[in-house]
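Quick one:
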Amino acid sequence: MHRAVFVGGGSGRRVGGVSVISSHDATRLLHETRAERESDSVGLRARLLSVAERIGFPELQRQNMALVASELASNIVKHADGRGFIQVWAQPGPTLDVVALDYGPGIPDLHAAMADGYSTAQTLGKGLGSVARLSDRWDIFTREPNPPPVRKWQGTAVLARFSHDAGPIADAGVYSRSLADERYNGDRIFIFQDRVCMRWLHADGLGSGEMAQEATAPLGGALLTGESPLGVLRVADSQLRKTRGAVALAGELRYGKSTVEMAGVGDLHAHLIDLDDPDSKEQLVFSPGTLGREYKQPKEQRTWFNSRGLVITASDGIRRNWDANTFPGLFFRDPQLVAYVLGNIMGRMSDDQSLLVATVGAAPDAESIR
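Output:
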């Protein structure tokens, strides 16, 4: 991966008559339960089925969700001694994600674990193979214990996704969780996506609670009026003048091109990982200050990769002290699974938490973007 350089201008794209996805409206933790005993899956299934029916998922998909949730909870009880949890997330689409994360011994032979669930009769089977067959999309990341004295996360994380109607965001994942899972969340990620590019604005309202949420609420329109990442920040700055203010970064990547452009103000952080050399993580630093208040003039930064890369942007509710060695192999997994792992493991419990993970250089299926 080449070093970031400062550039001017931007893409100069003008867009109109389109919608912008807001993490506040589309991404939400609906349910979380510890998986300490087999009976814990009863409440999980009931909550999952209720939400899925309300959203409009057909009966067969609802049945598949319940079977997958039970299988994942059972795996944590049996193989991780109940040291783990199951989450149900809403994502754009509408989409429901069932996420399992444990602190067990990891899976030494993932291929064998998959084979154990195979059934020629197309019944549920026992094991991860059933999760793969019953989900619309799925992925897994596992890590075996570290040799002492190193103390890092070990265990297994599984994503089982169920989509209804239109698909979710293509080649990207979003994690957003409010402080103590309260009603208000000052962190917000806005995303505009078409068949050419993805543009996003990642904002963190000053402080927390209702006033922080109100400050960031109207900023999505900046993606449609700002003609570059720097232009997006200028529009956001003007919208924040009568509020507490916010820190924010704006980014743009074009599909099929191995470049990403970003500009930011404040203590949000961005990480760039070259998938040809995942040990080469680079962290970008943005201009000090607060939009809507006082700040040092930001500059646009363009980073290009040898072929494909990963860009991760995060609020200060996500710790920065991780690299490829902390989660070896994670960054080759589904971007949404990457977001769930980093959010759950590296999130601070004293602040709102948010992450965006996007693949750079990918050319998404045209059907995945409506």
